[in-house]
Amino acid sequence: MNATHTPLVDMRDISLSFGGIHAVDRVSIDLNSGEVMALVGHNGAGKSTLIKILSGAYRRDSGTIAIRGEEAAIANPRDAKRYGIETIYQTLALADNVDTAANLFLGRELQTRWGTLDDIAMEAQARQVMGRLNPHFQRFKDPVKALSGGQRQSVAIARAILFDAQILIMDEPTAALGPQETAQVGDLIRKLKAEDIGIFLVSQDIADVFNLADRVCVMKNGRVVGTARIADVSEDDVLGMIILGKCPPRATPGPGAIERSQ
């Protein structure tokens, strides 16, 4: 990476406290276009709070967020969407009783010139975006509650990128999925990378992290222990950061690092 490179997202010295407890303490993390940055740590490590700051659900106490080198004012989820940031939570937040097109356009429905729902246009766009992600998907008329876990993830991702999201936050995308569906989600993520979409992957599954991510950032007690390229660390290195706060030699230590591993 050269000195003139500008990250897609650059969060610097982000802090947020709740009642005197430092949920996020001077956290710095960045993300490049076409990259998957895994964010890992125990429950309570601060990773969910950090992504909620980026998604506009929480307001930071201090620190800066830059999108493509320009400082971003993110005070609510609407602001985040304006900067091309979309979040896919573990629950997916799908409307189970309606079909794929209705989910993709939920709250942003297209209308005909007569003021009625333009079902034909919405289904056409749904087929187009789903074709990019999952060419074999055909169950456009079924309610999404009838879809498999991997297909439901496809719908949630399609809804995010339909309106030109460039930054995706994915919260435990393979939780409760079987091996085949997990592989399908992996294929989806690789296709998003190929379209230069940057992804923050929040996960407690170390195997997923090593299969899908380019870099990993480990948090502990609200602070960053270290950040590393996946190619430079082992699963044991990452577990050592998560459990002990020890930063391995080829990782960049953060304020939360207790010591360097030998």
What does this molecule look like?
The model has no long low-confidence stretch (mean pLDDT 90). It contains eight helices and 13 strands. It folds into two domains: 1-84 and 165-262, Rossmann fold, CATH 3.40.50; 99-163, no CATH class. With 262 residues, the chain is α/β, with parallel strands linked by helices. The chain has a seven-stranded mixed beta sheet with strand order 6-7-8-3-9-10-12, with helices on both faces.
CATH architecture of the largest domain: 3-Layer(aba) Sandwich
Query: Which percent range describes the beta-strand content?
Result: 25-35%
- Order the strands across the largest sheet as they lie in space: 6-7-8-3-9-10-12
Q: What's the CATH topology name of the largest domain?
A: Rossmann fold
> CATH superfamily of the largest domain, called what?
P-loop containing nucleotide triphosphate hydrolases
Taken from the alpha-carbon principal axes, the silhouette is globular
Order of helices and strands, N to C? EEEHEEHEHHHEHEHEEHEEE
- Amino-to-carboxy terminus distance: 26 Å
Number of separate structural domains: 2
- The assigned structural class equals alpha/beta
Number of helices, counting only DSSP H or I runs of 4 residues or more:
8
Give a short account of the largest sheet: 7 strands, mixed
What are the key terms here?
single chain, alpha/beta, four-stranded antiparallel sheet, 13 strands, Rossmann fold, seven-stranded mixed sheet, 2 domains, 31% helix, 262 residues
